[in-house]
């Protein structure tokens, strides 16, 4: 169904939208469960994302409505806000909470959100909503924040207002994304390098397992805790502040300090995955897609065996991809526990890949996946044309 968002806004609010903002979703090409361990990740912005249309009102209230959800909120302008249940509008409300607490004077605003990112799929719909709201309020109310400060604010919303111990990668990728480039981001220093990502004859297929995944209710926080346990044990003999300071050889030398086998597995994945990101950047820079594809498979195997965050659905996607001669790499992406996988598929073979995967996956899982193709797109910004999506 096509949505003319300007018409939707007019219908809901009885006035024309004055501004339209967009923030993409993201996929992480490689470097999973690394962001909260201070290492290297390689996300890219995609061309699916969140649209936010706004118009001022004279009623002194903030109105939140969505094309995707029935829940809506009308909140008076005040000095702080609190999370209200589990509704979608908590993400923008959290952003506004930090704006007003920081002293930015906001005025009445009518807002309409629409996202074409599959919700709960692991493509960062929440970060997309947070960043588009932060960017919009910064522009509309002259907040004076840099883009990096907006990213850090959005992360604070996720961690403190919503209550999910996620790292910086999602918000950073959707804010700083560049067309046809992956971002090799150091999650400890926030230094990043835009890596040319010429996919040549291949495209990025995004496969939604269609298994619902609620991050706050998943075992995500458990994995964070396990990594912190590994770090504390290694710090008995090593002067380090995060796991990703370790090279593979140094980790091998000191891993005996980790007493629990499960915790050891988690740390082994983290250190090796951080090294894979470095190898992946070299492969992409050399335009060696075959090598990059091998690293994707290795990443998935580690996430499946050592980190235990994949599951039957994600594994079925990668199993099928490994049998298709037109695929050179595949892996789960995002936090796992359902959500999405990605695959590098020959452009002229996407239809046959989709048909073959759907048959294999449905037989194994009991329902069909959804397959999207995406370009690598730009980060958050204001749009200056009517949007029909």
Automatic annotation (TrEMBL):
| Domain GHMP kinase N-terminal intervals | 90-177
Q: State the top-level EC class.
A: transferase
One Pfam family, short name? GalKase_gal_bdg
As recorded in UniProt, its EC number(s) are 2.7.1.6
| Keywords from the named record | ATP-binding, Carbohydrate metabolism, Cytoplasm, Galactose metabolism, Kinase, Magnesium, Metal-binding, Nucleotide-binding, Transferase
Which residues of this UniProt protein bind ATP? 66, 120-126
Asked if the keyword Transcription belongs to this entry, the reply reads: no
Q: Does the keyword Nucleotide-binding apply?
A: yes
Q: What biological-process terms (Gene Ontology) are attached?
A: galactose metabolic process
Give all residue intervals belonging to the GHMP kinase C-terminal domain.
Answer: 280-361
Q: Where in the cell is it found?
A: Cytoplasm
First-listed, main subcellular location of the protein, grouped into a coarse class: cytoplasm
Site keyed Transition state stabilizer: positions: 26
**Active-site residues, as the UniProt record annotates them:** 170 (proton acceptor)
Q: Which residues form the Galactokinase N-terminal domain?
A: 7-55
Per UniProt, substrate binds at: 32-35, 220
- Family matches, as SUPFAM superfamilies: GHMP Kinase, C-terminal domain (SSF55060), Ribosomal protein S5 domain 2-like (SSF54211)
Name its pathway. Carbohydrate metabolism; galactose metabolism
Q: What PROSITE patterns does this protein's entry cite?
A: GALACTOKINASE, GHMP_KINASES_ATP
Give the Gene Ontology MF terms in alphabetical order. Answer: ATP binding; galactokinase activity; magnesium ion binding
GO cellular component entries? cytosol
The residues that the entry says bind Mg(2+) are: 126, 158
Job of this protein? Catalyzes the transfer of the gamma-phosphate of ATP to D-galactose to form alpha-D-galactose-1-phosphate (Gal-1-P).
Quote the protein name from its UniProt record. Answer: Galactokinase
Write down the species: Mucilaginibacter gracilis
The top of its lineage is: Bacteria, Pseudomonadati, Bacteroidota, Sphingobacteriia, Sphingobacteriales
Q: Which gene encodes it?
A: galK
